[in-house]
Each structure stands twice: as structure tokens, then as C-alpha cells.
Amino acid sequence: MNLLAYITIGLVIGWLSRVITKDRGVTMYPSLAFGVLGALSGTAIVQFLDLAGAAFYAVVGAVGVLFTVNVFRQDEPIFSDTETL
Questions:
Q1: What is the residue extent of each domain of the chain?
Q2: Are 62 and 10 contacting, i.e. CB atoms less than 8 angstroms apart?
Q3: Cystine design at 10: which of 35, 47, 48, 51 (Cβ 3.0–4.6 Å)?
């Protein structure tokens, strides 16, 4: 049952990432997938290290993966000067 909760956390974080970044970030489906991937990897690391707060680290993992993907995109990075005159 916890796995379903962590997947849901990843989906919510992925959706929020898409809403916040709008057209600048990755599209919706990859955003959801990276959110779930980050949540599951964050949870797995915390459970491997036998630490408390797996749900918190699921959020941290999802945000970290999505931030990294959006920053290092080849097409149009988030933090680039894109002003056009």
C-alpha cells in the first residue's frame, strides 16, 4: 500500500512541475514519469539506509529529479536567458 502512496506523490509532484514550468519544462507524460521515478528512488534510498520519513524523501526525490531534468534539457533549459527583441 505504501508503494501506491509513493507513486501518487510522484504523480502529484510531476503534475505540479508541469503546471509551474508551463511551456518551458518537459511535457506532461515525461513530467509524471520523472516524478514517479524520483519519488520511488528517493523512497528506495531512504529505506535502504533505514531512515525515517520516506514520504518526505519521496517528495525530495521527485522534485530533485524533475529539477535536474528541466535544468539540463537540451532544447530550451529553464534557467537560460531567452529574451527576444
A1: 2-71
A2: yes
A3: 35
Q: What's the Cα-to-Cα distance from 37 to each of 8, 30, 47, 82, rounded to whole Å? A: 11, 10, 15, 29
Radius of gyration of the chain (CA): 14
Distance (Å, whole) CA 57 – CA 6: 10
The per-residue DSSP string of 25-85 comes to S--HHHHHHHHHHHHHHHHHHHHHTT-S-HHHHHHHHHHHHHHHHHHT-SSS-TTS-----
Task: Give yes or no for a contact between 78 and 26, defined as CB atoms under 8 angstroms apart.
Answer: no
pLDDT at 6 over 70: yes
Residue 44's pLDDT is what? 87
